[in-house]
Amino acid sequence: MRERPPISNVGKTVAANVGLAACYFIAAKLGLKLAFLNASATAVWPPSGIALAAVLLLGTRVWPGVFAGAFLANLTTAGTLVTSVGIAVGNTLEALVGATLVTRFAGGRDAFDRAQNIFRFVLLAAMISTAVSATTGVTALSLAGFVRPGDYGPVWLTWWLGDASGALIIASFLLLWSRHHRVTWTRERLLEGALLASAVLIVGTVVFGGIFSFEYLTVPLLAWAAFRFGPRETATVIVLLSGIAIWGTLHGAGPFLAATQNASLLLLQAFMAIMALVNLPVAAVVAERKEAVERLRDSEQQFRTLYQRERGTVEVLQRSLLPSRLPTIPGLTVAARYVPATPEPLGGDWYDVFPLAGGRVGLVMGDVAGHGVGAAAVMAKLRNALRAYALEGHSPKQVAERLNRVMERGEMASVVYLVLDPVRWHVSYINAGQPPPAVLEPTGTVKFLDQSSIPLGTRLPRSYDEHELDLMPQSTVLLYTDGIIETRTQGAEARLARLERAVAGRPATDLDDLLTHLLNQILGENAPIDDAALLAVAASPLDPRRFHLELVALPDSLATLRNALRQWLPQTGATPEEIFAVITAVGEAAANAIEHAYGPKEAAFEVEALVESGRLEIAVRDKGRWRTPRGPMRGHGLKMMRELMKSVEVASGPEGTMIRLSHTLRNAVRS
């Protein structure tokens, strides 16, 4: 037996519906006073925004309030009982459909906190759902003879635009104030807010009162609200300007006067809707930026305070800021070392390796001036920013220029960012104050990439020089910080010569051995006087019989997987058609692995392939759980795999899921 809801909840629901019906009725009657084309169609319709905001904030339980308010407003205005019911049904469906779409796709009641959700809100709630009410209402009136066939289009447009502008202007105002109702302004901010409100009233009166009818004078006011206050205040300015503009237009003044009052209101509402569409996203972006800055400052302050108190954890922190493991990159081998200085182990040296689009690889070596928690905080900021800019596709030059802009007063850092194309052995790099990267050629010769610019932190707009060159295939690239070569007695040239002697002629077949030898030759048993970091990358021959790759279960890993397969499959003798089929099938299997790799820890999946007697066997493993297709548009990936491969098997168990793909190569390389 279903449990009855508490009486108090029922009472609250009834009160909410009654209050909503009253608000809707009053707003509707005011809006219908401006119905000039048809008694039931107006270009100014605040109830659409009220209803939409109410359903988003209170839930679908308040739909009777929307229906009752709409029904009573139309019944007491024009039409019949039947047309009033039809219009009320359309208005109620408009609110329910709009709230459902916004909740599902645009962030729900928080839609106006993010710019991308605002554009979705406009499309779903202000354009699509309002067409439901316009179509239902005008059709009901037309069938009852209250709208002539020739007037259907103009009446529908007036109805729709009135509902759309109400949904955007009024709903944004109500949602933002309901979600952020507390005003915690300083005295200076209160004074600025008063100045803004006064300017809105004065400029609004001047523009829409006919003194100087130039509507774009309102744009600076909206920009002021967006950049200095936020989305809530921007929505408030839009509502105030809309009210003043409607008043002026009805009194025959302002820039939107047309042949009829209805046409004037349509032009006005279209302008205010566009102003809202432009300025609300701007305000949201500015607010997001401010929140991000505040979060960054808060996290940095917490970071500094915490680790100044807990000095025993600084070494653990240093290691956590460096890559926990280097990525697996087919065709390349990568190794790194970090040796902290004494007595303070926490410094600002860092290194990073990450795959880029097109099969390229990003190599980073950086050094923040100073030691301790402060240097590590700057290091963490730069490391994350550099990786983000690089993955966005910016060139080394552009990355350096952006990094220089995020440096704060008193911060200084050097960094070398090198992009390696392992297919052409081509590099492009920027060196902002780091020791020159060393290249160990297959002949044993050591060359230095000695083009360099000034370090980051100049606090001036700076253009960094980007350099490109082709390396000898099978070379080894070595990046390092000055802690490797720094001594108190030798100059820079002598130190580089010491490094050159330590690596010249050394085989690069084992990078770990190479780095161990380098540290022994330069540092010996002594700790460096400054933090020392080493990063080396060299070519690794591909085995035409075996392939293994482990990747983080993120969508970005699919590009790395495809690039790796494009390098390996030609070694097996696969034809271009077979390469395309295998990459497509494995990509589908990997996409499934990513989708099902859940859990609080960093999830991963692996791909392993073996060529034996002309037969290619591939296994894609994850630690998730295979699920049956959800919906009619899902499950096509498995069908595609079976079309492309000779056989496909899916094995799922408590430990995870494995997809086995099998294909016979026509021209497999014989071992």
What does this structure look like?
The chain is α+β, with helices and mostly antiparallel strands. It folds into 4 domains: 1-181, Arp2/3 complex 21 kDa subunit ARPC3 (Orthogonal Bundle), CATH 1.10.1760; 184-309, no CATH class; 315-539, 4-Layer Sandwich (Phosphatase 2c, domain 1); 546-664, Histidine kinase-like ATPase, C-terminal domain (Heat Shock Protein 90). It is built from 18 helices and 15 strands. The protein has helices spanning 7-32, 47-58, 63-75, 81-105, 115-143, 152-179, 187-208, 219-228, 231-250, 261-309, 314-321, 372-391, 396-406, 492-503, 511-522, 557-572, 576-595, 636-644; strands at residues 332-339, 347-355, 361-371, 413-421, 426-432, 438-440, 446-448, 467-470, 476-480, 532-539, 546-552, 604-612, 615-622, 647-653, 656-664. The strands form 3 sheets. It has a 5-stranded antiparallel sheet with strand order 1-10-9-6-7, covered by helices on one side. Strands 2-3-4-5-8 form a 5-stranded antiparallel sheet, with helices on one face. Strands 11-12-13-15-14 form a 5-stranded antiparallel sheet, covered by helices on one side. Helix 1 packs antiparallel against helix 2, helix 8 (219-228) packs parallel to helix 10 (261-309) and helix 16 packs antiparallel against helix 17. Residues 329-539 form the PPM-type phosphatase domain. Pfam families: HATPase_c_2, MASE1, SpoIIE. Keywords: Cell membrane, Hydrolase, Membrane, Transmembrane, Transmembrane helix.
Set down the secondary structure blueprint.
Blueprint: H1 7-32, H2 47-58, H3 63-75, H4 81-105, H5 115-143, H6 152-179, H7 187-208, H8 219-228, H9 231-250, H10 261-309, H11 314-321, E1 332-339, E2 347-355, E3 361-371, H12 372-391, H13 396-406, E4 413-421, E5 426-432, E6 438-440, E7 446-448, E8 467-470, E9 476-480, H14 492-503, H15 511-522, E10 532-539, E11 546-552, H16 557-572, H17 576-595, E12 604-612, E13 615-622, H18 636-644, E14 647-653, E15 656-664
Helix pairs in contact: 1-2, 1-3, 2-4, 2-6, 3-4, 4-5, 5-6, 5-10, 6-9, 6-10, 7-9, 8-9, 8-10, 9-10, 12-13, 14-15, 16-17, 17-18
